[in-house]
Amino acid sequence: MAEDSGAILRHISSLKDMLDKVNEEIEQNIQRTRETESEIVKHSETEKDYLVKESELMKGVSVAEFELDGLMQVEAAAGTDSLKAMEGNLEFRKATLNAIRKLFYDKMYGLHLIHKSYKPRLQCFLNNNNYYSR
Q1: pTM for the whole structure
Q2: Where is coiled-coil annotated (predicted)?
Q3: Residues whose CB falls within 8 Å of the CB of residue 58, separated by 6 or more in sequence, listed in order
Q4: Domain residue limits, the chain
């Protein structure tokens, strides 16, 4: 009888240790989930910021193109004396517009890279949530 009681107590102790390990793993998974959710929120805010910047850059490009079109129309109507000065101004505006476009496309590429690195993390997070919800 005493041997049976000892065996039962050892078995209960073993089960308690296993339960403690499972609880510890659950806590670790909960903490990782919180960290992932926090990172997703941070990336969402960054993405919003980039979308606002993209909108501002597109507005700047549109304004520059509008000004360039206006200058080209003025150039067509202007006399030959002011034509050379306007051509210089026009070339400057074209160079500025090209610089703005390059900046815009560089920023878009950066946004693309951020989005590209963000997407697998989101997929991993979603896959992990599906695993734990079973």
Answers
A1: 0.43
A2: 12-39
A3: 104
A4: 2-132
